[in-house]
Each structure stands twice: as structure tokens, then as C-alpha cells.
Amino acid sequence: MDKLATKIKLYCEANSKTANFDDGGNVKLRNNSDGNGDFISSWSVDGLAQPTEEQLNELESQATTLESNNQVDATRRTAYGSWNDQLDEIYHDIDAWKSRLQTIKTNNPKS
């Protein structure tokens, strides 16, 4: 459901709206495990019509890029370590810290 949720978020943002997938939110997604994949089971975004399949398909590459970049961000955050450790590293050798972070960014590029 991640890809569908991402496309819906992008669709809503493009129309100055917010998709909320939480319980009681304005968008509900389901998958009946029937091989047909995820679908919108409930749509109540105020002032915005439910997107068509074609509208969501137009956001495919943008959603893929966003999800890839989110994964890169998560990988980088793990590799950076805690703020406490980073501050200690900066205090002891800021140039080594800068070099380490640049290596992490180089090894985990964003799209």
C-alpha cells in the first residue's frame, strides 16, 4: 500500500490538500488479497474528488523517486549515528566528521 499511499499524498499535495490515512482519516486503503492489489476503499478529502487510476498512474515515477529518497534518508540517518556521537566526533575532529558524512552521502545518493 506504500506506493498507492505515496501517489495519493502527491495527488493531494498537488491540489493543496492533505491525505490522512490514520484511523478516522480522510482516506482508507484496502487490499482484499484477491490479486487485484491495493485500492481506495473510502475517500473523504474535503473539496477534492477521488483520483482516477489514470491520475494516480501519472504520479508513478514521482512516487518511485520519493520512496527511493525516503529509503536513502533512512539509510543515511542510521549510518550517521546519534547526535551525541556526532557532536563528540565534531569536537574531536570536525574534518574527519565532514569526510565521514560525505562518504555516507556519496555511497547513498538520492535520485
Describe what you observe in this structure.
With 111 residues, the chain is mainly α. It folds into two domains: 1-58, no CATH class; 72-111. Helices cover 58% and strands 10% of the residues. The protein contains four helices and two strands, in the order H-E-E-H-H-H. It has helices at residues 2-14, 53-57, 60-80, 83-107; strands at 27-31, 38-43. Strand 1 and strand 2 form a beta hairpin. Helix 1 (2-14) crosses helix 3. It is elongated. The two termini are 22 Å apart.
Main features:
111 residues, mainly alpha, two-stranded antiparallel sheet, 58% helix
Number of helices: 4
Low-confidence stretches: none
Strand content: 5-15%
**Terminal Cα separation, in Å?**
22 Å
Class derived from helix and strand content: mainly alpha
Fraction of residues in H or I helices: 55-70%
Biggest sheet strand line-up: 1-2
Order of helices and strands: HEEHHH
Specify the overall morphology.
elongated
